[in-house]
């Protein structure tokens, strides 16, 4: 399936109340697998400028600091735009429409099932904001920045909780240790708990490729497998599946141990186990390798 986190329909002339309500509603995230029956891809209201915005990031896990906001472009008919511009400009505004910081740009990154733009900017204050993309809806795409204490999933600057994830030597009753096809990934030889004691950076991937083979989880894991061939033993790679069963019903303990409410996610830690960065929902090989280079430099 190709479900993404739900995008708020801001429409035009939105009030403060509707803005806040829309962001609150988006907190119920769509997992890539759609296993809870409520997942769906969302599209903003029709744009007079030619495209709408699809949020490719969860909206209840952003904290002050550098904010990553991957966006895919869509037509008013909810069709992904494959041939968008090479770069796009954007700005962030607060709930009253006041600009926060200056303008910034993102490059188009091509990955199945649709290209995305990885907008990054720094926001230091919790609150409700909107990402306004050049050529898109005037009111942009709403998102919320929360206090770190209000976010269950580990954020940059925090220790990644140690947990004995299933391995080849101890599958812990999983129906499938790794659902990547046609071959399982090579990231199940050591548990996360062991990886965090090895004195090296760790890349911890949480996702279920079998349930979104054409969505985010499988391409993201494929990119990670390719990256491991470049970085070798400089980084310890660990993968944990989201479900213990093959029907996508029973959540794995590895997921609840870190408070995950969406998938996929990639936690990058330094050699001491502190989260340096978390990539949510979607990434391509180019963006991934750039972040891993920073991790090992």
Quick summary:
The chain has 297 residues and is of the alpha+beta class. 15% of the residues lie in helices and 25% in strands.
Layout of secondary structure:
Blueprint (H helix, E strand, L loop, with lengths): L15 H10 L26 E4 L9 E10 L12 E8 L4 E11 L6 E8 L3 E7 L7 E5 L46 H4 L6 E5 L10 H15 L4 E5 L12 H4 L8 E5 L5 E6 L4 H12 L1
Helix pairs in contact: 3-5
Task: Please tell me about this protein's structure.
It is a single chain. This protein has 297 residues and is an alpha+beta fold. Helices cover 15% and strands 25% of the residues. It has 2 domains: 16-150, Immunoglobulin-like (Sandwich); 192-296, Glutaredoxin (3-Layer(aba) Sandwich). It is globular and about 55 Å long. The longest helix has 15 residues, at 217-231. The strands form 2 sheets. Strands 1-2-5-4-3-6-7 form a 7-stranded antiparallel β-sheet, covered by helices on one side.
Q: How large is the radius of gyration?
A: 19 Å
Distance between the termini: 36 Å
Q: What is the helix/strand order?
A: HEEEEEEEHEHEHEEH
Adjacency order of strands in the biggest sheet: 1-2-5-4-3-6-7
């Amino acid at each position: 399936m190709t479900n993404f986190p739900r995008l708020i329909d801001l429409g035009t002339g939105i009030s403060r109340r509707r803005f806040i309500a829309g962001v609150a509603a988006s907190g119920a995230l769509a997992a890539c697998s759609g296993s809870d029956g409520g997942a769906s891809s969302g599209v903003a209201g029709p744009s007079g400028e030619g495209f709408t915005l699809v949020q490719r990031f969860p909206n209840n896990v952003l904290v002050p600091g550098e904010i990553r906001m991957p966006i895919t472009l869509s037509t008013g008919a909810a069709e992904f735009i494959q041939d968008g511009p090479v770069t796009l400009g954007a700005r962030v505004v607060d709930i009253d429409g006041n600009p926060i910081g200056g303008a910034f740009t993102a490059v188009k990154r091509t990955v199945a099932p649709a290209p995305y733009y990885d907008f990054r900017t720094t926001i230091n204050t919790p609150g409700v904001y909107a990402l306004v993309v050049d050529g898109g809806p005037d009111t942009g795409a709403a998102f919320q920045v929360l206090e770190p204490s209000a976010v269950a999933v580990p954020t940059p600057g925090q220790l990644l909780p140690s947990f004995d994830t299933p391995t080849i030597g101890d599958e812990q009753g999983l129906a499938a240790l790794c659902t990547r096809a046609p071959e399982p990934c090579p990231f199940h030889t050591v548990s996360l708990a062991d990886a965090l004691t090895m004195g090296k950076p760790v890349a911890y991937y949480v996702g279920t490729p079998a349930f979104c083979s054409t969505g985010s989880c499988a391409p993201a894991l494929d990119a990670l497998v390719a990256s491991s061939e470049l970085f070798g033993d400089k980084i310890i790679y660990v993968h944990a599946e989201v479900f213990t069963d093959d029907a996508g019903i029973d959540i794995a303990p590895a997921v609840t141990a870190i408070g995950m409410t969406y998938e996929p996610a990639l936690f990058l830690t330094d050699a001491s186990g502190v989260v340096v960065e978390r990539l949510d929902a979607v990434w391509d090989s180019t963006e991934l390798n750039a972040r891993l280079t920073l991790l090992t430099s």
